[in-house]
Every structure is written in C-alpha cells, then in structure tokens.
Design goal:
The protein is mainly alpha-helical. 79% of the residues lie in helices and 0% in strands. It is built from 10 helices and no strands. The protein folds into 2 domains: 211 residues, MFS general substrate transporter like domains (Growth Hormone, Chain: A); 51 residues, no CATH class.
C-alpha cells in the first residue's frame, strides 16, 4: 500500500514538472499566435467593426464552449479530452497560414475576412473547450497544501517566456513588414504557434492522470449558481471577473486598432 502511494506521488511530481514545460509551449503559442490574430485581421484589410466582431467572438463562443466541454468530464478521461482538443487546436493554426497564403496570391480576397472569421471562431471554440478538463486534471495532480505556490511558480515562468517571445515576435514582424513581406511574417508566426501547440500535445500525452472522483453533493447547475452567486465568495468573484472581462472586451479591440494604425504614421 505504501509503495503504491509513493508511486502515485512520484507520478504526480513528474506530471507537475511536465505541466510547467507544457506551459512554456502554451505561452509560446499565445505570444506567437494569439497576440497576432487581430493585427493579422487588420493586415488583410479588416474594418474597425470587423475587428470588434473578432473580439466579440472570443467573448461569446469561448465561455459557451467551456460550458459544453465541462459536461464531457466524467464521460471521458480528462487526459483524452485535453490531448484531443489540443491536437485539433494546433491544426487550426494551419488554417490561418492558408488565409495568409490566399491573401499573398490574391485568391478570393473578397471573402477572405469571412473565411478567417470562421477559422478564428473554430480556434476559439476548440482552445477554450480545453479549460474545464485542464483545471480538473491539475486540481488532482497538485496538492492543496502547495497549490498556490506551484501555480505562482508556473505562471512566473510562463509569463516571462510569453513577454520575451512577444517582444521578439514584434521585432520579427516589423522586419518582415519593412521588407514588404508582412504576410510571410504572419505565416511564420502562425507556424511557430502550430509547432508549439504540437509540443504541448506531446507533453500532455506523457502526463499522469489520477482517477477522477466526482462527488454528487458538489455538483450544481448553472441556474443554481446564478441564484446563489451573490451569497458566496465564488459567485461574487465570478461577477467581478465578468464585469472586468466585459469592460476589457469593449476597449481591447479599439486599442489594437489604435496601436496598429498609429504605428503607420
């Protein structure tokens, strides 16, 4: 019995180490891909209203996909959910590269923005559907007593990598823009985002997943949450986060437009 417990602890420790490595690749995906989807939309002649629509897609489809995917937990293993969705998400970055190629070749440019919006929506839905299973999985491999310390360590590493790569990507994209090959620059960034996500998929495939334990008394419906949201800390925090996200999604696309257009002056 003691040997089994020790073995499980070792597997969890290795899983946590792999998760930090996966976090680095996830940060690379964001810095080289997600941060440049709106600038890419502007580069293929998106209007201000269209850019705002891209931002709206993230705010609407993301949470909806999380609500749907949360119902899969218990029916399928969390590892299976995460690995498959990460793999599917990585393939959507190849679709972004296809859009850049079509723009370079001047093919169906009149509907290219609509096609990119559809591909972007697909990316948002798949990438957000990972979240419930990911948090449930990590809640079991990270013990409560050092959960805060571990996540702060992971976030420190991933945020540092994210900032460094985002700055490098900005300089690289500026170089391609000055040489008249900005679409090639976007294509390379999206390919690197694809490669980073494939690396995340490989890391997830090697991680240990403890057997899930679902307690029925901890389950509550969405309507129950809405009714009790003002009477508990989790509900109040969710309301705060919702208001913050609402304000963010109002000004975020406008800031992107301003920064991109002002850099042309």
């Amino acid at each position: 019995m003691k040997g089994k417990i020790k073995r499980i602890r070792e597997l969890k420790h290795k899983a946590r180490r792999k998760s930090i490595g996966e976090g680095v690749f996830a940060a690379a995906r964001s810095s080289l891909g997600n941060y440049y989807t709106l600038p890419f939309a502007i580069a293929i002649n998106s209007s201000n209203a269209m850019v705002a629509m891209f931002s709206s897609v993230s705010g609407i489809l993301g949470p909806l996909s999380q609500m749907f995917s949360s119902k899969l937990i218990g029916k399928y293993s969390r590892k299976k959910i995460v690995t498959r969705t990460v793999l599917y998400e990585s393939l959507t970055w190849l679709l972004f590269i296809l859009v850049a190629f079509l723009y370079i070749k001047d093919i169906i440019t009149n509907i290219l923005l609509v096609i990119f919006l559809l591909f972007f929506s697909l990316n948002v839905m798949i990438s957000n559907s990972i979240t419930p299973a990911w948090f449930s999985w990590h809640g079991d491999i990270v013990d409560k007593k050092f959960r805060g310390r571990w996540f702060s360590k992971r976030n420190l590493i991933t945020d540092f990598v994210s900032v460094v790569l985002a700055i490098m990507a900005a300089f690289a994209l500026d170089y391609f823009k000055s040489s008249g090959h900005v679409m090639l620059g976007f294509g390379i960034l999206f390919f690197l985002a694809f490669s980073a996500r494939i690396s995340s998929w490989k890391m997830f495939s090697k991680m240990y997943e403890p057997k899930i334990k679902v307690k029925k008394e901890n389950h509550f419906s969405f309507s129950d949450f809405i009714i009790k949201s003002g009477t508990n800390n989790f509900g109040k925090f969710t309301i705060f986060r919702g208001m913050l996200e609402f304000a963010t999604f109002i000004y975020w696309p406008l800031i992107t437009i301003y920064l991109v257009t002002s850099s042309h002056r």
